[in-house]
Structures are given as C-alpha cells and as structure tokens.
Design goal:
220 residues; three-stranded mixed sheet; alpha+beta; three-stranded antiparallel sheet
Length: 220
C-alpha cells in the first residue's frame, strides 16, 4: 500500500526505486526520476540528470520552469527519439561515450545539442572529424613533369632537383641549336614526385628549388 507521501512524489515525476535499490539513503525515493522519451520510459537518479548543470535534463529535474508534461505515471514527457537517449543517459552516468556499431554519431550529436550537454557534444564532434580525416586519406599520387633542356644545363638541373622530385628518364632529341662552331644537344628530362592527399586537397607547397624546376616549363 502506497503512503500519501510516496504517491505525491510519483505524481511529481518521481518513482520508487526498483526492488533491492535500497532504503531512503541519499534522499529516499525522491532521488529516482522517470523520463518518458518518445514513448520509452527511462529510470534514473537526480544525481545523474544533474551531472551537467546547464543541461535541459538538469534544469528539468531541479524544477525549473520548463515546458514538459507528464504521463499517467507522473513521468516527464520528452518528445525526442529514445534510440539516441540511451547513450546520452549513460554518458551522464559514467562520462564515456559508448555506441553500438550501427548507431549513427550524427543522431547522438543532434540529441546532445538538444539537451545541451557540452562535453558530449565536443567528444562526438572530435570523433566525427577524426573519422572524416581517416576516410579522406588515399594512397599517394605521382606527378610527372617533362623538362626540355640543353646539354650544358643538365648538371644545373640535376643539382636543383630536390624536395621529393626524382629523376625518371633522359631522352636525347638531337641538336637544335648551334653556338659558334658547336652544336648543342637537347634533352627531355622526365621527373616525378609523390603527392599525398589530405582533407584539404593535394599538398601544394613549393620550395624555392621546386619553383626553379617549374619555371623551366614543360615543353614537348
């Protein structure tokens, strides 16, 4: 048989603890709270809900003026998806984000923002950013350049070829210039470089020596 005091607490949105929860220590029955989230009832404590002082749940269980009706059992009615409320409640219990493998982090983030749970919002966003960065990583790509130079320029060109550029092939295309009494042979020099992808696109840094290579142009 319920006492008038217990019945009054249940009407206020509180519930008696489950069997074996133990006595009136720490505030008696009043420390237990029922939440009806989208038709699913959750039973927890005021201490858990008040873990984040600025959250919607903390304000709710502290009796602040929030628009929340109650069902026939006195549980607070919250019109949100119960699927994502479990991880929210567990985070308030032990401070860790634990998700089933098929649960979308975006859904939990949406609920965390609704309930205004700052630490959880930051954790989820960090995890999502890290996951996005990992997904965008792809094997390195090779970029090739064909440089046309004269015989006397070969030594200088090879000495300035650094910053990841690698010599691939040298092709003699014959003599096209005549200086004085000597013909100057011309060559096509094929060089390559690895470029790694990142979330912001291919790396494009160019040092002074790389710019010198690029300044020679690509002449076929």
């Amino acid at each position: 048989m319920q006492t008038p005091q217990l019945a009054m607490r249940m009407e206020a949105g509180e519930a008696a603890p489950p069997a074996g929860a133990g006595g009136r220590a720490g505030g008696g029955w009043g420390k237990w709270v029922r939440l009806n989230v989208g038709g699913t009832v959750f039973l927890t404590t005021r201490q858990t809900l008040c873990r984040e002082q600025k959250s919607f749940l903390s304000r709710l269980c502290q009796g602040e003026e929030l628009q929340s009706d109650r069902d026939e059992t006195g549980a607070y009615l919250i019109d949100r998806d119960p699927t994502y409320f479990g991880p929210i409640l567990n985070f308030l219990r032990h401070g860790k984000l634990v998700l089933d493998k098929d649960m979308a982090e975006e859904g939990v983030l949406e609920e965390a923002e609704f309930y205004n749970i700052g630490p959880l919002i930051r954790i989820i966003k960090d995890r999502m950013e890290e996951k996005d960065y990992t997904v965008t990583q792809v094997p390195p790509k090779h970029v090739y350049r064909v440089l046309q130079c004269q015989e006397e320029e070969l030594t200088q060109m090879v000495s300035t070829m650094s910053d990841g550029w690698r010599f691939e092939q040298l092709v003699n295309i014959g003599s096209s210039y005549n200086y004085g009494s000597e013909d100057q042979a011309e060559f096509l020099c094929v060089v390559s470089k690895e470029l790694h992808s990142s979330p912001h696109g291919l790396s494009s840094e160019s040092s002074r020596k790389t710019k010198l290579l690029q300044a020679r142009g690509t002449r076929m």
